[in-house]
Amino acid sequence: MSEPFIRKLEHAGILSEVERCALRILTTNRRAVLARHDIVTSPGTERVHLVTSGIAGRYKVLRDGTRRIISFVLPGDLCWVHAAAISAGRDLKIGALTPCLVADISRPQLTDLIQTYPGISRAMWWVTLTELSRTREWVVNDSRPAPERFAHLICELLVSLQVVGMAGEDSFEFRLSQADVADAIGVSHVHINRVVQALRTQELIVWCDQTLRIPNVRRLKAFGEFDPGYLCLDGLAI
C-alpha cells in the first residue's frame, strides 16, 4: 500500500486529497523482493524505488568482505531520496533485510508531481532534510558504547514505524537478524550477542518471535540518549 508514504509525507504538512490521489496512482506498480536480495544496486535514471512494507538497508561492502549498513529504509521511505541526483550514492547498494514490497516509481512522473503540487514539493524537501539529519545522527551514534548504540537504533525504529502506523506504543515487528543489527551498529557478529544480552539483562528489551517489545520506553530512550528531534517530525518551520 502507498499509505505509509503518504502518512510520512504529511508530517511536512497536510496534503490535499488531489495530492494524495496522485501519489496513490504513482505507487501502484509494486513487486516483492525476498530477504537477502538487492532491491537496487545503483541509482537509475528512470525509476525511483519506494519501500511500502518490510525493512531494507543501504549498505557498502568493504574490501575485506565486511558489510556496513549505513541506514535503514523503512515503509514509506524512498531508496534514493535525491531523485534528481542520479550519480549520488553509486558506491552503495540497497538490500531487503526482510521480505519487502517495493513500488517502482517513474522518475519523470515524480518530478512532474513535485513541480505541479506545492504540498508534494514541500514534503519531498522535508524528506531530504530529514534524511540528512538522520545521517548525521547515525554518525554521532557510532561514538556511543555498543549497548547504547543498539538502544538508540531501537528507539529510532520504534518512532519511525509509529509514524507510518506500523508500531504500537512499545513494540514492533522486528524480523532483522543479529547479523543485520551488528552491521548497522558496527560491531562484530560475535560481539552482537553480548550487546543484545546486555539489554535483555537490564530488562530494556524483550526480543522474541520476531517481535521487539520495550518494557519501559522512557528508560530505553534515556539509556540510548535518544531525542527524536533529528527525525524532524514537527515538519518544516516555514
Automatic annotation (TrEMBL):
GO biological process, one term: regulation of DNA-templated transcription
Keywords: DNA-binding, Transcription, Transcription regulation
Record bears the keyword Manganese: no
Species this protein is from: Methylobacterium planeticum
Identification of the protein by name: Crp/Fnr family transcriptional regulator
Span of domain HTH crp-type: 144-218
GO MF: DNA binding
SUPFAM superfamilies named in the record: cAMP-binding domain-like, Winged helix' DNA-binding domain
